[in-house]
Model the fold of this input.
Amino acid sequence: MDLLSPLTAMALGTLLGGWRIIKMMGQCTTKLEPVGGFAAEAGGALTLFLASGLGVPVSTTHTITGAIVGVGATSDHQDRATSERIRCSSWMSARDK
Done:
């Protein structure tokens, strides 16, 4: 019973607000096409498998966000790539505090 409350809260949060996060990451942060989405997912999965194999604790959220930003940085939009680097570096520095 102690485990049921947090699981229910996480499921409801994902159900009600998860689509906004997915939309923001896939459309607002970087305009992803299907092949770019596949590349980001494959890169994130490969990174997670490698880190797990080495016993390194990593955040799945940071891993997939980094993969999405990486795919966006390879696009032709230099100004967008620059803003992504700034956003990513500020996020990384903020989480260390």
Observations:
- The helical segments are 4-29, 34-54, 60-73, 78-95.
- Residues 20-95 form one domain.
- The two ends are 34 Å apart (CA to CA).
